[in-house]
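Q: Structure for this?
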Amino acid sequence: SQQGEEDPQALSIQEGENATMNCSYKTSINNLQWYRQNSGRGLVHLILIRSNEREKHSGRLRVTLDTSKKSSSLLITASRAADTASYFCATLNYGGATNKLIFGTGTLLAVQP
Amino acid sequence: DAMVIQNPRYQVTQFGKPVTLSCSQTLNHNVMYWYQQKSSQAPKLLFHYYDKDFNNEADTPDNFQSRRPNTSFCFLDIRSPGLGDAAMYLCATSSSRAADTQYFGPGTRLTVL
Protein backbone atom coordinates (compact mmCIF):
# COMPACT_ATOMS: atom_id res chain seq x y z
CA SER A 1 0.00 0.00 0.00
CA GLN A 2 1.19 3.51 -0.72
CA GLN A 3 -0.62 4.85 2.31
CA GLY A 4 1.36 7.10 4.61
CA GLU A 5 1.82 6.56 8.29
CA GLU A 6 1.23 9.17 10.94
CA ASP A 7 2.31 9.32 14.50
CA PRO A 8 1.25 9.60 17.11
CA GLN A 9 -2.10 7.97 16.45
CA ALA A 10 -3.56 10.04 19.26
CA LEU A 11 -2.34 13.10 21.12
CA SER A 12 -3.84 14.83 24.14
CA ILE A 13 -2.56 18.23 25.26
CA GLN A 14 -3.65 21.22 27.29
CA GLU A 15 -4.87 24.43 25.73
CA GLY A 16 -1.96 26.76 24.99
CA GLU A 17 0.53 23.95 24.42
CA ASN A 18 2.02 23.11 21.03
CA ALA A 19 1.01 19.97 19.14
CA THR A 20 3.34 18.16 16.74
CA MET A 21 2.23 15.45 14.36
CA ASN A 22 4.47 13.48 12.03
CA CYS A 23 3.82 11.86 8.69
CA SER A 24 5.94 9.42 6.72
CA TYR A 25 5.28 8.36 3.17
CA LYS A 26 6.63 5.81 0.73
CA THR A 27 6.88 7.21 -2.78
CA SER A 28 8.33 10.34 -4.34
CA ILE A 29 5.88 13.22 -4.28
CA ASN A 30 5.10 16.54 -5.91
CA ASN A 31 3.53 18.00 -2.82
CA LEU A 32 2.23 17.06 0.60
CA GLN A 33 -0.91 18.45 2.16
CA TRP A 34 -2.45 18.47 5.61
CA TYR A 35 -6.19 18.20 6.17
CA ARG A 36 -8.30 18.51 9.28
CA GLN A 37 -11.41 16.48 10.00
CA ASN A 38 -13.75 17.34 12.83
CA SER A 39 -15.64 14.38 14.27
CA GLY A 40 -18.16 13.04 11.78
CA ARG A 41 -17.42 15.74 9.22
CA GLY A 42 -15.61 16.16 5.91
CA LEU A 43 -11.99 17.11 5.42
CA VAL A 44 -10.79 20.70 5.34
CA HIS A 45 -7.58 21.61 3.54
CA LEU A 46 -5.09 23.33 5.87
CA ILE A 47 -1.78 23.77 4.10
CA LEU A 48 0.24 22.51 1.14
CA ILE A 49 4.01 22.21 0.89
CA ARG A 50 5.75 21.46 -2.38
CA SER A 51 8.57 19.00 -2.78
CA ASN A 52 11.11 21.79 -3.30
CA GLU A 53 10.09 23.56 -0.08
CA ARG A 54 11.39 22.73 3.37
CA GLU A 55 9.13 24.76 5.61
CA LYS A 56 5.88 26.65 5.34
CA HIS A 57 3.79 28.71 7.73
CA SER A 58 0.13 29.60 7.85
CA GLY A 59 -1.14 31.35 10.96
CA ARG A 60 -0.51 29.00 13.90
CA LEU A 61 0.49 26.16 11.58
CA ARG A 62 4.03 25.26 10.63
CA VAL A 63 4.78 22.44 8.23
CA THR A 64 8.17 20.96 7.47
CA LEU A 65 9.10 18.55 4.72
CA ASP A 66 12.16 16.34 4.46
CA THR A 67 12.06 14.57 1.11
CA SER A 68 15.27 12.64 1.84
CA LYS A 69 13.56 11.01 4.81
CA LYS A 70 10.13 11.01 3.17
CA SER A 71 8.63 12.68 6.19
CA SER A 72 6.70 15.78 7.17
CA SER A 73 5.60 17.33 10.41
CA LEU A 74 2.73 19.62 11.33
CA LEU A 75 3.13 21.94 14.31
CA ILE A 76 0.13 23.73 15.78
CA THR A 77 1.24 26.43 18.17
CA ALA A 78 -0.75 27.81 21.09
CA SER A 79 -3.43 25.17 20.68
CA ARG A 80 -7.09 25.84 21.38
CA ALA A 81 -9.96 23.54 22.30
CA ALA A 82 -11.37 24.21 18.82
CA ASP A 83 -8.29 22.53 17.32
CA THR A 84 -9.61 19.19 18.58
CA ALA A 85 -9.93 17.07 15.42
CA SER A 86 -8.22 14.39 13.36
CA TYR A 87 -5.35 15.55 11.19
CA PHE A 88 -4.37 13.74 8.00
CA CYS A 89 -1.41 14.17 5.75
CA ALA A 90 -1.94 13.44 2.09
CA THR A 91 0.60 13.09 -0.68
CA LEU A 92 -0.11 14.02 -4.24
CA ASN A 93 1.57 12.50 -7.26
CA TYR A 94 1.31 13.89 -10.72
CA GLY A 95 1.67 10.49 -12.34
CA GLY A 96 -1.38 9.52 -14.37
CA ALA A 97 -4.02 11.63 -16.04
CA THR A 98 -5.60 12.87 -12.82
CA ASN A 99 -3.87 13.94 -9.64
CA LYS A 100 -4.76 11.70 -6.73
CA LEU A 101 -4.34 12.15 -3.02
CA ILE A 102 -3.10 9.32 -0.84
CA PHE A 103 -3.96 9.88 2.79
CA GLY A 104 -2.05 8.90 5.88
CA THR A 105 -3.61 7.10 8.81
CA GLY A 106 -4.30 10.29 10.77
CA THR A 107 -3.59 11.70 14.22
CA LEU A 108 -6.45 12.31 16.63
CA LEU A 109 -5.70 15.50 18.56
CA ALA A 110 -7.58 16.33 21.75
CA VAL A 111 -6.99 19.76 23.25
CA GLN A 112 -8.19 19.95 26.84
CA PRO A 113 -9.51 23.37 27.95
CA ASP B 1 -20.93 30.32 -0.77
CA ALA B 2 -19.59 27.85 -3.28
CA MET B 3 -19.53 24.44 -1.72
CA VAL B 4 -19.81 20.67 -1.89
CA ILE B 5 -23.07 19.29 -0.53
CA GLN B 6 -23.82 15.70 0.38
CA ASN B 7 -27.24 14.20 1.04
CA PRO B 8 -28.31 12.61 3.17
CA ARG B 9 -25.86 13.21 6.01
CA TYR B 10 -26.88 9.93 7.63
CA GLN B 11 -28.23 6.91 5.78
CA VAL B 12 -29.42 3.64 7.27
CA THR B 13 -30.02 0.69 5.00
CA GLN B 14 -30.57 -3.01 5.35
CA PHE B 15 -28.15 -5.70 4.35
CA GLY B 16 -28.49 -6.21 0.60
CA LYS B 17 -30.85 -3.27 0.01
CA PRO B 18 -29.54 -0.89 -2.69
CA VAL B 19 -28.72 2.61 -1.57
CA THR B 20 -27.79 5.83 -3.38
CA LEU B 21 -25.76 8.66 -1.94
CA SER B 22 -25.81 12.09 -3.51
CA CYS B 23 -23.21 14.80 -3.99
CA SER B 24 -23.67 18.21 -5.56
CA GLN B 25 -21.28 21.10 -6.04
CA THR B 26 -21.60 24.77 -6.85
CA LEU B 27 -17.89 25.16 -7.63
CA ASN B 28 -18.29 24.19 -11.29
CA HIS B 29 -15.33 21.85 -10.92
CA ASN B 30 -14.48 19.33 -13.61
CA VAL B 31 -13.39 16.53 -11.32
CA MET B 32 -15.45 14.78 -8.67
CA TYR B 33 -14.20 12.05 -6.35
CA TRP B 34 -15.80 9.51 -4.04
CA TYR B 35 -13.89 8.26 -0.99
CA GLN B 36 -14.76 5.60 1.57
CA GLN B 37 -13.56 6.19 5.12
CA LYS B 38 -14.05 3.46 7.68
CA SER B 39 -13.88 4.21 11.37
CA SER B 40 -10.48 5.54 12.48
CA GLN B 41 -9.00 4.93 9.03
CA ALA B 42 -7.72 7.07 6.19
CA PRO B 43 -10.05 8.03 3.33
CA LYS B 44 -9.69 5.61 0.45
CA LEU B 45 -10.41 6.68 -3.11
CA LEU B 46 -13.12 4.59 -4.80
CA PHE B 47 -13.33 6.37 -8.18
CA HIS B 48 -13.41 9.75 -9.81
CA TYR B 49 -15.00 11.51 -12.75
CA TYR B 50 -13.24 13.91 -15.05
CA ASP B 51 -16.25 15.52 -16.72
CA LYS B 52 -18.18 12.42 -17.81
CA ASP B 53 -15.11 10.22 -18.00
CA PHE B 54 -15.38 7.60 -15.24
CA ASN B 55 -12.21 6.27 -13.60
CA ASN B 56 -12.41 3.32 -11.25
CA GLU B 57 -9.67 2.44 -8.75
CA ALA B 58 -8.38 -1.08 -9.33
CA ASP B 59 -9.44 -2.36 -5.93
CA THR B 60 -12.92 -0.82 -5.83
CA PRO B 61 -15.50 -3.63 -5.56
CA ASP B 62 -18.06 -4.06 -8.34
CA ASN B 63 -20.73 -3.49 -5.73
CA PHE B 64 -19.96 0.22 -6.00
CA GLN B 65 -21.14 2.18 -9.02
CA SER B 66 -21.32 5.86 -9.80
CA ARG B 67 -23.24 8.22 -12.06
CA ARG B 68 -22.58 11.80 -13.03
CA PRO B 69 -25.55 13.13 -14.98
CA ASN B 70 -24.17 16.67 -15.17
CA THR B 71 -21.30 18.82 -13.89
CA SER B 72 -23.03 19.59 -10.61
CA PHE B 73 -24.18 16.17 -9.45
CA CYS B 74 -22.54 12.83 -8.77
CA PHE B 75 -24.15 9.75 -7.23
CA LEU B 76 -22.70 6.74 -5.47
CA ASP B 77 -24.77 3.58 -5.82
CA ILE B 78 -24.13 0.60 -3.59
CA ARG B 79 -25.96 -2.28 -5.22
CA SER B 80 -26.00 -4.77 -2.36
CA PRO B 81 -24.60 -3.25 0.82
CA GLY B 82 -22.83 -5.58 3.20
CA LEU B 83 -21.95 -4.98 6.83
CA GLY B 84 -18.41 -4.18 5.72
CA ASP B 85 -19.66 -1.25 3.66
CA ALA B 86 -20.68 0.71 6.74
CA ALA B 87 -18.50 3.81 6.58
CA MET B 88 -18.37 7.54 5.96
CA TYR B 89 -18.56 8.33 2.26
CA LEU B 90 -16.86 11.54 1.25
CA CYS B 91 -17.35 13.43 -1.99
CA ALA B 92 -14.68 15.85 -3.17
CA THR B 93 -14.08 18.08 -6.16
CA SER B 94 -11.11 19.70 -7.84
CA SER B 95 -11.00 22.36 -10.50
CA SER B 96 -8.99 20.27 -12.94
CA ARG B 97 -7.13 16.99 -13.26
CA ALA B 98 -3.92 18.86 -12.52
CA ALA B 99 -5.27 20.70 -9.48
CA ASP B 100 -3.42 20.30 -6.22
CA THR B 101 -6.29 20.82 -3.81
CA GLN B 102 -9.54 18.97 -3.32
CA TYR B 103 -12.64 20.37 -1.67
CA PHE B 104 -14.62 17.97 0.47
CA GLY B 105 -18.27 17.72 1.37
CA PRO B 106 -19.37 16.94 4.93
CA GLY B 107 -19.81 13.26 4.18
CA THR B 108 -22.62 10.72 4.45
CA ARG B 109 -22.42 8.19 7.24
CA LEU B 110 -23.83 4.87 6.08
CA THR B 111 -25.09 2.31 8.55
CA VAL B 112 -25.94 -1.20 7.35
CA LEU B 113 -28.27 -3.25 9.55
